């Protein structure tokens, strides 16, 4: 029923367009039959003409939500934001160890069977600049999760163990990475191992249409070791250079929009969703729509589980307050109020629909995916 033009309103309330225009004319405003009216004006004129008008909001909310994802905010609202770097690669090639080393943590050691089961995101500081890393599982069964990680990302670091070279999941990652259309940096990892043949991997990369820069191509290949720390400074510098070239920016002063990377039910805290803010600032007390779930944000935790009160662009956080566990890989939106969030969530639930991040750019609906 949007937009509310004079003509639409006239039809809706059963009063001549002339009377509507006349009302505005008395007020010193000239409107034509095709002019759009603000909601308040529409309500006022309807009341004046003796009609109790109710404008049902929300029918176009889905479009508004998509628009808030797709369109950049005004130029003068945009500020620098940390780059989001997704780590992709074959199982066991050392992704988690690399991220652990960068953040001086030890996640890899605590993982069941040494295999990453879900996406995790962390922020580190380097030269007083924040960088957000998204660690993904390399296991074959987690392809969809990798696609999700690749979706929110600005830069991809493709980890290849030098003793193993390009493996099946490496190939899959190359295709995700290329689909994402973002810069790819190769970390040729485990270079601490004796007698590794780095030339072999360079050749394989060239065969996969990823000619290394040292051979005149456009792909930076950094020799690294998560074990010894070799090459990690160079890796971070290369990431920062790439980020500088692209100038990643977002408006921090708007209702937050972002993606849900993971979600689960925590015994003590209830539903916990691992979100990454893409635009705006997420605050405790915000009313959030996340796929088919909704809720008022009760607590925000940073990547070390410290409680924080808000999170700006590119910040990965865990939040408590959603009514149910959302599907991982959907977008979240801060809504005007809890009622609006609930309505959209319930409509989506009813229609069995939630957009899932599996391609970059426009999110697809579940229907799109099922019918594809
Ligand atoms: P998934 O998450 O299961 O895909 O694995 P991953 O890529 O995160 O690998 P992870 O960091 O868990 O490391 C796998 C194994 O390789 C572990 O036993 C690590 O200790 C070992 N490893 C990781 N990085 C290096 C490295 O640079 N050198 C050597 N020698 N071993 C490494
Ligand atoms: Mg891992």
TrEMBL record:
GO molecular function: GTP binding; GTPase activity; translation initiation factor activity
UniProt-annotated stretches for the region G-domain: 83-231
UniProt subcellular location: Cytoplasm
Residues annotated for GTP binding in this entry: 89-96, 135-139, 189-192
Gene: infB
Protein known as: Translation initiation factor IF-2
Gene Ontology annotations for the cellular component aspect, listed alphabetically: cytosol
Taxonomic lineage: Bacteria, Pseudomonadati, Planctomycetota, Planctomycetia, Planctomycetales
Annotated ranges, domain Tr-type G: 80-249
Annotated function: One of the essential components for the initiation of protein synthesis. Protects formylmethionyl-tRNA from spontaneous hydrolysis and promotes its binding to the 30S ribosomal subunits. Also involved in the hydrolysis of GTP during the formation of the 70S ribosomal complex.
UniProt keyword RNA-binding, yes or no: no
Keyword Nucleotide-binding: yes
Organism: Fuerstiella marisgermanici
Keywords on record: Cytoplasm, GTP-binding, Initiation factor, Nucleotide-binding, Protein biosynthesis
Family recorded in the similarity comment: Belongs to the TRAFAC class translation factor GTPase superfamily. Classic translation factor GTPase family. IF-2 subfamily.
